[in-house]
Amino acid sequence: MQKVKEKREIFKSFLEIEEGIIEHVGPDGKKHTYSRERLVRDNASCVLIHHIEKGVFVLTKQFRFAISDFVKEPIMEIMAGKFSEGEEPLEAAIRESEEECGYSIKKENIEPIASYYASPGYTTEKYFLYYATVSSEDKVSEGGGLENENEYIEVIELPEKELIKMAKENTLEDSKTLVSALWFIINKC
Fold first, then answer.
1. Nearest to 76 by CA among 63, 59, 64, 93
2. When comparing pLDDT for 148 and 61, which is higher?
3. Percent of the chain surpassing pLDDT 70
4. Distance between CA 40 and CA 9 in Å, rounded?
5. Strand pairing class (31-40; 16-25)
6. What is the signed CA dihedral for 8, 42, 114, 172, rounded to 10 degrees?
7. Angle between helices 160-168 and 175-188 (to 10 degrees)
8. Residue among 103, 87, 98, 108 at smallest CA distance from 44
9. Which of 33, 38, 83, 180 could connect to 48 by a Cys-Cys bridge, CB 3.0–4.6 Å?
10. Is the CB of residue 5 less than 8 Å from the CB of residue 22?
């Protein structure tokens, strides 16, 4: 069984990195000590926004430095944003949907899909996925994110059939978008 003996912050800027000293007793009964690093991240609410009247999904595109060496253009993603201090996942989902996509989501029109750790091998970040339906009357702004957070988000509308096709053909490049699209296929088609 592994046990965390010590943790310490080794870097903090936009991201925070911690080192942990792990103690482990092996099958041979010997005690082993080793270190691991982890990226400490806020949790995020993510929403697959479905505009029923138009028959489209409202998605985002934005520059992602972490993958900029591998992709030439921003990839398509469902809306995602981190929680504010003391905020619940559902509250964050509704607030961030308006900031990023310009839609005011009613509580009765949003439902949970799943929650899971983004990449448990190296980060603390957990995704809380939701599915929401909107109509034209729910559109309150152009969205695009907050300039003071350096968010420059392009809001796009993707036909239902296209998202389903992309999920089936494995051409979606973002895990939260893929999980949400597959959930939609299983539960709503």
1. 59
2. 61
3. 100
4. 10
5. antiparallel
6. -100
7. 110
8. 87
9. 180
10. yes
H-helix segments, 86-147: 89-101
Q: Which of 153, 40, 178 lies closest to 100, judged by CA?
A: 153
Q: How far is 113 from 109, CA to CA, in rounded Å? A: 13
Which residues contact residue 180 at a Cβ distance below 8 angstroms, ignoring those fewer than 6 apart? Answer: 46, 48, 78, 113, 129, 131
The pLDDT of residue 57:
99
Cα 53–chain centre separation: 25
Distance of alpha carbon 21 from alpha carbon 7, whole angstroms: 6
Residue 85 is predicted with a pLDDT of 82
Does the CA dihedral 77-78-82-84 come out positive or negative?
A: positive
SS3 (DSSP) at 24: strand
Please tell me the distance from the alpha carbon of residue 1 to that of residue 136, in angstroms, as a whole number.
Answer: 54
Identity of the residue numbered 42: D
How large a percentage of the chain has pLDDT more than 90? 90
Residue that has been written with the tokens 């591998």 in this structure = 70
Assessment of whether the complete model's pTM goes beyond 0.90: yes
List, in sequence order, the alpha helices (H) in the chain. 89-101, 160-168, 175-188
Tokens 């392009």 belong to residue: 154
Q: Rounded to whole angstroms, how far apart are CA atoms 176 and 73?
A: 18
For 96, half-sphere exposure in the C-beta direction (CA atoms, 13 angstrom radius) is: 30
